[in-house]
Amino acid sequence: MALVVHKYGGSSVADPERIRLVADYIGRARRRGDDVVVAISAMGKTTDQLDRLADDVSTSRPGREMDLLLSSGERISMALLTMALTDLGVPAVSLTGSQAGIITDASHQRARILEVRGDRVRAAVAAGQVVVVAGFQGVSRSRDVTTLGRGGTDTTAVALAAALDADRAEIYTDVSGVFSADPRVVPTARRLTHLSWEELLEMCAAGCPKPDVRAAEFARTHRVRMEIRSSFTWEAGTRVGPEEEVVEQAIVSAIVLEGGEAKVTVAGVADRVGVSATLFGALADRGVNVDMIVQNTSLDGRTDISFTMPISDLDVGLAASRSTLDDIGAADVTADSDIAKVSIIGAGMKTNPGVAATVFRTLAGEQINIEMISTSPIRISVVVHQAEAEQAVQALHGAFGLG
Ligand code: ASP
Ligand code: MG
User: Fold this and answer.
1) Which of 68, 191, 222, 348 could form a disulfide with 177 if both were Cys (CB 3.0 to 4.6 A apart)?
2) For 68, how many CA atoms within 13 A lie in the half-sphere containing its CB?
3) Which of 396, 285, 278 is CA-nearest to residue 340?
4) Is residue 248 pLDDT above 90, yes or no?
């Protein structure tokens, strides 16, 4: 008998009808012989509504109270799903993150899971119950309720699967899997049947919106098998696991487009020891998450450093960079937010030369200029002009025969 963790996102349980459909599906899985533990999100846009309510009464939004507020959304959905299961004759019990033993650090609104004490969940499963755990939340060692950051229920599901040694975590959502490219950009994009943990993590880090990048990271580290699938069609989705098991290993699996970043260029930096440490130290101190970095060869003792970072933090990033100008002997800081990052991901790149050449040749053929390049063993990312990004994705998708 398999133990499977099911995760249901907000759209999967958006209204009473959907909650009953999910309960029915879980009942079927039970009758097939699976033990089921559920990690559930708040209904529909509940978390956004609670967040707006906080704005209406508070400008300070204290973290501890925000977490008590936001975590209540999942309490509603967990109790309702459990009632619906009970009505179908499926023995079930709901548990908050705290009751389920999800222990986190104390950083409110972006807590990290330290440990899952799964005994209560295990006991309920052993007693034949479906256990419905509130996603996105835990409790700190000082017994305050914490939340994991938006989209955190994916991580709850994977962490539960790891702690319970489950066969897999099935992530039910409103898309039917992970695609070779965003189908809105590339109509011929295919649903991928298999991905390795490493590929999924690279894709999420490169901007693929689902599943959540922290869940992909947790799954890779703890080797938790996942399946990303639809709670609307219930068809087979994308399985994620060890690279050895990926049949039909393609050289390139997917092309991912990420907007939302800006390029910052610090010009005329003195070419001496420690300037990068000063510049990126200042950015790190202000919590700015820097992505790609390029430094040119120096001419006459001066060089340019460019990096990309989230547009949402651009003001902070620019201020941090400007504050270092004197120290690093630089002339000027400029920003360009009309950029996008296009990433090509595939485990087969490790053993197949020429992928980078194909990328560059394809973009050249489209007259698309590349502004920055970065790579990992299984990823090539390029920064291009935003207006040309979709064309770049379409051309690359075709060039690697992904359709
Ligand atoms: N309800 C939370 C959110 O909307 C957590 C989740 O859905 O994963 O971000
Ligand atoms: Mg949600």
Assistant:
1) 191
2) 6
3) 396
4) no
Query: Of 132, 125, 172, 150, which is closest to residue 18 (Cα–Cα)?
Result: 172
Percent of the chain with pLDDT over 70: 100
pLDDT at position 115 over 90: yes
Q: 35-40 and 3-8: which strand pairing?
A: parallel
For ligand 1, atom 9, the nearest C-alpha belongs to 150
* Distance, CA of 132 to CA of 307 (rounded, Å): 43
In 33-120, DSSP assigns E strands to: 35-40, 92-95, 102-104, 113-116
In whole angstroms, what is the distance from residue 213 CA to residue 339 CA? 22
Closest CA to 41 of 184, 198, 196, 215: 215
**Among the listed residues 194, 333, 172, 162, the one whose alpha carbon sits nearest the alpha carbon of residue 264:** 333
Q: Which two tokens stand for residue 324?
A: 């270092």
State residue 246's pLDDT score.
77
With CA atoms as reference, report the closest residue to 173 among 236, 239, 230, 237. 230
> Which residue's CA is minimally distant from atom 6 of ligand 1?
151
Alpha carbon of 49 to ligand 2 centroid (Å): 11
Using 50, 70 and 90 to split pLDDT, how confident is the model at 351?
confident
Residue 301 amino acid letter: G
What are the E-state strand segments in 156-301? Answer: 168-173, 194-196, 226-230, 238-241, 254-258, 261-270, 293-295
Average pLDDT, the chain: 96
Local structure of 175: helix, strand or coil? coil
The SS3 call for residue 59 is coil
Atom of ligand 1 nearest to the CA of 152: 8
CA-nearest of 162, 164, 159 to 148 is: 159
